[in-house]
Specification:
The complex is a heterodimer of chains A (347) and B (288). Chain A is mainly α and 347 residues long. In chain A, helix 2 crosses helix 5, helix 6 runs antiparallel to helix 11 and helix 8 crosses helix 9. Chain A starts with a helix and ends in a 17-residue tail after the last helix. The C terminus of chain A is likely disordered. With 288 residues, chain B is an all-alpha fold. Helices cover 69% and strands 0% of the residues of chain B. In chain B, helix 4 runs parallel beside helix 7 and helix 7 runs antiparallel to helix 10. Classes of the chains: A mainly alpha (347), B mainly alpha (288). At the A-B interface, helix 2, helix 7, helix 8, helix 11 and helix 12 of A face helix 5, helix 6, helix 7, helix 10 and helix 12 of B.
Chain lengths: 347, 288
């Protein structure tokens, strides 16, 4: 049955394949809601007691229990939470006044601005570094960049953040603000200086992974026979690299880029907290401290959903950037699932 | 009579190859120094970790090697006391996570294709949350207990390790000696333990090194965010957070722990990378 459905989508060419991938994301999103719920509310222990801690009075406990539906059975609790969550209704915060969506709205935009600005800098940068290191393999640039990326890959992001603050904000060069002064509720564009250091931190955290994969993939391509062929035809090295090697080397990197963008969603949480940047990360930390479950659940679910979406985009991107796969799906005669063999491992 | 040469195990050869590389030696040295510092440090600390010795943020002096922290406690003594918790917790979570991932990976690789793909599909779903986000989620539901944090960090490692190990073990499953073992009728447990496991040790060790680096980052980050060890405990992550506000007047309270964390993770990464290179067999001597 599953196979039949899969074949149907694959034989229908690219459009149906894309549709199939999107449909396949739906059960995963549902699974994510179960996971988020289990990780917070399903185990014994009373979320209302832990939220109120020392300030618990019978009335307040009852109010919180009522708000989280703690008196219902575990299935009813999950069902009412999940059906609302899938409609982007995450209820109100445990303090009771504001709705979770109202708090998160502008902050999601700020976080997306930060992720986008990091991605826009980090992705081209890491591709350039990776390609250049591969072309100059074994030479000075290669060895220096490989040590630097090895070191950066080892460092936790908050360590990078503090080091960046130390050098560029507080102690050595006092150029950028150490914390952002963007008013909550306004967009980060209003103060570009505040974006600088968080962006730099995330760029330093993402670049090593992507550039190392890019280098490896590029080296593999450069040793292939068709590159030799291109050289033997007398093409300039520039043409060989840019026209023949790069497009082929970039396909495996797309998966890693998508994974790194998904990782960024986690990385921003800590980095935002360091810089007090008014995005979802800072709210998340505040809410974890206050044990305000509805907000934390909402943010976690959104980050998980983002991962699913990015993965689907990466799969589509891989197909579009690989001529072999592209024709496979457009000529509608394929029955094998390429993703069974595709290596999408995280580093 | 000459004794027959004892065959060197593959692992032995790999380790020897690894430590021939300069970076691995450097990494080993760094790790050794930090480990000694963390384990024996508390015995050499001039003060206890929660003793008030000077004015808050007092600068470096004859008696206070690294000055006082934001509360007036000796930074040097707190630094010497603060390594055990983070290294211990990271080790626990790494062993737990990599161990669990290993079990799942080997089980999936040796299972029927349908079971295998079912396990791995489920595994993929677990990958959707960045590790730090999942740890924070659990903390918000169940509170800040350092044991819980170590376990949760370990649990977030498991699906990632399982993927790597399954991929490595699936390749081994295709080889003839496994087919022979199955044909002879060896039990599955035996195949897993005595045929599969010895053949995935290299990816396993690389994975262990990688996961240890991430564990340190995660455990430290949780403490840094104020959700791990609670004051007045001495812990490198917590110290960075506490003294961050006085970075301009008395930077040593931040510099010392941050340097230790950074060096330790860099050291582990140097060894892991060198080992991975030896295992793959490329760049063995640094140059072709």
């Amino acid at each position: 049955m599953v196979k039949k459905i899969r074949n149907f989508f694959q034989q229908g060419g690219l459009v149906l394949f894309v549709l199939g991938r999107i449909l396949a994301g739906i059960p995963i999103i549902i699974a994510l809601t179960i996971l988020v719920f289990v990780a917070t509310q399903a185990l014994p222990g009373d979320a209302a007691v832990s939220y109120l801690a020392n300030t618990a009075t019978p009335e307040r406990l009852a109010a919180i229990r009522d708000q989280l539906n703690l008196e219902d059975s575990i299935w009813q609790q999950y069902f009412s939470w999940a059906t609302h969550a899938l409609r982007f209704d995450f209820g109100t915060t445990l303090t009771g006044e504001t709705s979770v969506s109202a708090i998160l709205g502008p902050r999601i935009q700020n976080t997306l601005i930060l992720m986008a600005s990091s991605g826009i800098v980090a992705i081209p940068l890491s591709i350039i570094v990776g390609v250049y290191a591969a072309v100059r393999r074994g030479k000075l640039f290669d060895s220096v960049s490989s040590v630097i990326t090895l070191i950066l890959a080892a460092l936790p992001e908050f360590v990078v953040a503090i080091v960046v603050v130390f050098f560029l904000a507080t102690n050595i060069f006092m150029i950028f603000p150490a914390i952002s002064f963007v008013e909550p509720g306004t967009l980060a564009w209003s103060d570009p200086m505040s974006l600088a250091l968080p962006t730099l931190t995330l760029v330093l955290a993402v670049t090593p992974y992507v550039s190392r994969i890019m280098r490896g993939s590029m080296i593999e391509v450069m040793e292939s026979e068709y590159i030799q062929m291109a050289r033997l035809k007398g093409l300039s090295e520039r043409t060989v690299i840019l026209r023949h090697a790069l497009p082929n080397a970039i396909a495996p990197t797309i998966q890693v880029i998508a994974l790194q963008l998904a990782w960024l969603a986690g990385g921003v949480v800590v980095v935002e907290a360091v810089f007090a940047y008014p995005g979802i990360g800072t709210v998340m930390i505040e809410s974890v401290k206050a044990r305000d479950l509805p907000i934390v659940q909402a943010i976690t679910l959104m980050i998980g959903a983002l991962y699913v979406v990015l993965n689907i985009l990466a799969d589509i991107g891989t197909i579009l950037s690989t001529p072999r796969l592209r024709t496979k799906y457009v000529r509608k005669n394929d029955t094998t699932n390429i993703f069974a063999t595709m290596d999408t491992d995280q580093l | 009579m000459k004794k027959p040469l004892k065959p060197r195990s593959q692992l032995h050869t790999l380790t020897a190859l690894t430590f021939k590389q300069g970076y691995a030696k450097l990494g080993g040295l760094i790790i050794l120094v930090i480990l000694i510092l963390a384990l024996l440090g508390p015995y050499f600390a001039p003060y206890t970790f929660d003793e008030f010795v000077d004015a808050p943020n007092a600068p470096r002096s004859q008696t206070l090697m690294l000055g006082a922290d934001y509360f007036g406690r000796d930074v040097y003594s707190r630094f010497l006391n603060g390594g055990r918790s983070i290294i211990g917790l990271s080790l626990i979570s790494t062993v737990l996570g990599v161990g669990l991932g290993l079990l799942v990976g080997l089980f999936a690789a040796s299972a029927k294709p349908r079971t295998d793909s079912l396990i791995m599909r489920f595994n993929d779903i677990l990958l959707a949350f960045p590790q730090i986000v999942f740890v924070l989620l659990v903390v918000s539901g169940f509170g800040t207990s350092i044991f819980l944090i170590a376990v949760t960090v370990g649990l977030t490692h498991a699906p990632r390790t399982a993927r790597i190990i399954r991929a490595a073990a699936a390749e081994v499953m295709e080889r003839d000696f496994i087919k022979a073992a199955i044909a002879v009728g060896e039990k599955r447990q035996r195949i897993i333990i005595s045929e599969l496991l010895p053949n995935v040790t290299s990816p396993l060790l690389v994975e262990f090194g990688l996961r240890m680096t991430y564990s340190i980052g995660l455990v430290a980050a949780v403490s840094f965010l104020g959700l791990g060890l609670q004051p007045p405990a001495a812990d490198w992550g917590l110290m960075i957070n506490e003294n961050r506000g006085s970075l301009t007047v008395q930077p040593w309270g931040v510099i010392a722990p941050i340097a230790a964390i950074a060096l330790f993770t860099i050291g582990i990464n140097f060894i892991t990378d060198s080992f991975a290179k030896s295992a793959i067999g490329i760049d063995r001597k640094g140059k072709e």
